[in-house]
Amino acid sequence: PSHGTIERVSGVDFARIIQPMTHLNGDSDGEVTFKVDIFDPREEAKKKKKMSWLNVAKNYDIIYFNYIPDAWAFAEMGAMARGFGKKMVLDVDDSLWNLKPSNSAYSVYHKGSEALSNFTSICNEVDYMTTTNSYLKNVIAHNTLKKHERIRIFPNYVDLKLYSYQMAFKYNTKITLLH
């Protein structure tokens, strides 16, 4: 993920990107073989190597990342990817164009903000996008220049075999909601 590390990644990024991609690592149909590496800038620092999008762009055919809020970071990555003719795929699981003022991200991504404008431009630049459901696919198509054919639905994936905990059933009429 573009805004996390291996030890500190959001649950959404783990369930949407890291876990499914690790299952694809090494998978091949004879023509294409998946080589999935999870980038961690701290690992690069331990090796005393500066992270280089040049090396990424030379060594991979597709760069698949979650949304990147920094326009300059995307420009650096995008320039290398485009320079080597590589595809960029962006995963988005939020409707940043429709945030309510009560949302903590609203102060950054409100209508007319530079951050939302940059994010929209990044969406327009990538080759493909993935998202969680058809609602978000339509939101992306409505708010960007991205056509429906270039937006794919990649449902959240949780491997339930990893979790053995099951809550005991409690019957009561009390309902607790959290927002």
Task: Describe the protein.
The chain has a four-stranded parallel sheet with strand order 1-2-3-4, covered by helices on one side. It is built from seven helices and four strands. By secondary structure, it is of the alpha/beta class. It is globular. It is 37% helix and 10% strand. Strand 1, helix 4 and strand 2 form a beta-alpha-beta unit.
- Distance linking N and C termini: 27 Å
Order of helices and strands: HHHEHEHHEHE
Shape: globular
What fraction of residues sit in β-strands? Answer: 5-15%
Q: If helices are DSSP runs of H or I spanning 4 or more residues, what is the number of helices?
A: 7
**How are the strands of the biggest sheet laid out side by side?**
1-2-3-4
Major sheet description: 4 strands, parallel
The amount of helix comes to 25-40%
The quaternary organization reads as single chain
Mean pLDDT: 81
Number of strands: 4
Q: pLDDT under 50 segments (min length 5)?
A: none
C-alpha-based Rg, rounded: 19 Å
Structure classification: alpha/beta
Give a concise summary.
The chain is α/β, with parallel strands linked by helices and 179 residues long. The protein contains seven helices and four strands.
